[in-house]
């Protein structure tokens, strides 16, 4: 079956962190669209924990997915440089389905929520790795062996309403503060603390 005819649905929880100051300026804040990154270059990690998922009969429930990324506001089109991480416990069918969805090749909501899927961006690698993740609210953490460590400290104390395009602006989320954000993977090599984070639910279909 061609990728264009793949039928898929994912639902679960999402959290991220990047090097911007909280509240991350790319968010929609009290309904007002955001702007450029705090420092002109965004470096971060995005993570999903799929609670229920299916792609053409392949069960994706329980699968974690992560993306490490960077982009510069000063590059024309601000293309993303990114790495996709899939869990080593996934079957070959699960990995193939998730790679197709998260690269945008399966279409659907990915083309609305994943900037790297609608921009001219560089996918450095799709890696299979040991992924450990906990999406406990306000205490989220993620480990991708040899590559990523990310840990949330708690909730940002402001009262603003924030939403993010990646889970979808129709879903309210919560601004967070990260204790640790570290990536070591080829062109993506950075470490920060006290920077912004975000948590929300997600539901995508295609």
What labels would you give this structure?
mainly beta, two-stranded antiparallel sheet
Please summarize what this structure is.
With 206 residues, the chain is mainly β. Helix content is 9%, strand content 48%.
Explain what the structure shows.
With 206 residues, the chain is mostly beta strands. It has one domain (3-205). Helix content is 9%, strand content 48%. The chain contains 3 helices and 14 strands. The protein has helices spanning 92-102, 110-113, 115-118; strands at 8-18, 28-29, 41-55, 58-59, 64-72, 81-87, 122-129, 131-134, 141-144, 148-155, 162-163, 174-185, 188-192, 196-205. Strands 1, 3, 4, 5, 6, 7, 8, 9, 10, 12, 13 and 14 form a 12-stranded mixed beta sheet that branches. Strands 2-11 form a two-stranded antiparallel ribbon. Strand 12 and strand 13 form a beta hairpin. 40% of the residues are buried.
Give the overall shape, derived from the CA principal axes.
globular
Biggest pleated sheet: 12 strands, mixed
What oligomeric state do these chains adopt?
Answer: single chain
Provide the low-confidence segments as ranges.
none
Q: Taking Cα atoms only, what radius of gyration do you get, to the nearest Å?
A: 16 Å
Helicity, as a percent range: under 10%
Structural class: mainly beta
- Kindly give the count of domains: 1
Q: What is the terminal-to-terminal distance? A: 15 Å
Average pLDDT reading: 95
Beta-sheet strand percentage?
over 45%
**How do the helices and strands follow one another from N- to C-terminus?**
EEEEEEHHHEEEEEEEE
Number of helices: 3
What is the β-strand count? 14
């Amino acid at each position: 079956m061609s990728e264009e005819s793949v039928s898929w649905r994912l639902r679960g929880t999402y959290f991220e962190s990047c090097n911007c100051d909280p509240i991350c300026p790319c968010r929609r804040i009290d309904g007002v669209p955001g702007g450029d990154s705090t420092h002109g270059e965004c470096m971060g990690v995005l993570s999903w924990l799929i609670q229920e998922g299916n792609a053409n009969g392949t069960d994706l429930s329980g699968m974690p997915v992560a993306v490490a990324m960077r982009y510069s506001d000063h590059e024309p089109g601000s293309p993303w440089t990114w790495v996709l991480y899939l869990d080593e416990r996934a079957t070959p069918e699960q990995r193939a389905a998730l790679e197709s969805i998260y690269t945008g090749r399966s279409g659907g909501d990915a083309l609305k929520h994943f900037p790297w899927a609608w921009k001219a961006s560089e996918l450095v690698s799709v890696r299979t790795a040991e992924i450990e993740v906990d999406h406990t609210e306000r205490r989220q953490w993620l480990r991708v062996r040899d590559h990523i460590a990310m840990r949330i400290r708690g909730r940002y104390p402001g009262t603003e309403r924030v939403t993010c395009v990646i889970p979808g602006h129709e879903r309210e989320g919560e601004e967070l503060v990260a204790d640790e954000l570290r990536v070591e993977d080829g062109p993506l090599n950075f470490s920060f603390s006290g920077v912004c984070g975000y948590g929300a639910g997600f539901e995508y279909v295609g």
